[in-house]
Amino acid sequence: MGAYLIYFAIIIIIPIWAQFKVKGAYNKYSKVASSSHMTGAEVARRILDANGLYDVSVSEVRGQLTDHYDPRTKAVRLSSGNYHGHSVAAAAIAAHEVGHAIQDAESYSFLRLRHTLVPVANIGSNFSWILIMIGFFAGASGFVLLGILFMAGAVLFQVVTLPVEFNASNRAMDQVVSLGVIRNDEERETKKVLNAAALTYVAAAAVAVLELLRLVLIYTGMQRSE
User: Fold this and answer.
1) 39-74 pLDDT, tens per residue?
2) Residues 204, 125: Cα–Cα separation, whole Å
3) Which residues are listed as membrane-spanning (predicted)?
4) Spatial separation of the C-alpha atoms in residues 38 and 45, rounded to whole Å
5) Could you tell me which of 187, 191, 166, 168 has the C-alpha nearest to residue 177?
6) Which domain range does residue 27 map to?
7) pTM score, two decimals?
8) pLDDT digits over 167-206, tens only?
9) How many domains does the chain have?
10) Max CA-CA distance within the chain?
């Protein structure tokens, strides 16, 4: 019982800690103006144009930290604070989302793989626990195994997301430095914003892998008792 309590505490604490780090870094560096004094929208447009991505639009989206790249419409969408903001955080996040647009244009392998896994991840997220719970209550290990296989697809999606996000951040740093969006003394602050954002994906992947391993152990226990 004690081991289960520790386990559940870990999978709850890890995401909360990651969100705390992200919001802390964002709140701190959204108050630090960048030397170029460019808005997030201007940073995104500058990097897109420098890479010949004139067909990718930049638009504003509601909310905080709702920034994303939409590959279907070829659009970089920035939350209001980052779209209009002149901060180091706004520049970093805008550059990161453009990093995804560059990946898309270059057919970056992990991004293509992640897109392929979207249907698998959706099915796994929606149906895995239904099958697992049926298996638990009915004592049918076959349903549990099927649920674990569905969940494995969703976990694979989380794991593949990691290189996609880290690569986008690396591209972002290269672009803001080479295009003079930030100065040398701002690189450390920019990296802190990008690294904090990456923690959310690391945390999500870690929790998903831990949960999958726990279910595999439960399934093996059911097999021994049958």
Assistant:
1) 999 999 999 999 999 999 999 999 988 999 999 999
2) 13
3) 6-22, 193-219
4) 10
5) 187
6) 2-225
7) 0.88
8) 999 999 999 999 999 988 899 999 999 999 888 999 999 9
9) 1
10) 67
Structure tokens at 41: 């929208």
What are the structure tokens assigned to 179, written together? 């295009």
Report how far residue 220's alpha carbon sits from residue 52's, in angstroms, rounded to the nearest whole number: 53
Residue 210: HSE in the Cβ half-sphere, 13 Å Cα cutoff: 16
Residues catalogued as catalytic: 97
What tokens appear for 81 in the block?
């604070």
- Tokens representing residue 117 in the block: 């896994």
Print the SS3 string covering 160-193: HHHHHHHHHHHHHHHHHHHCCCCCHHHHHHHHHH
| 3-state class (DSSP) for residue 79 | strand
Polymer length of the chain? 226
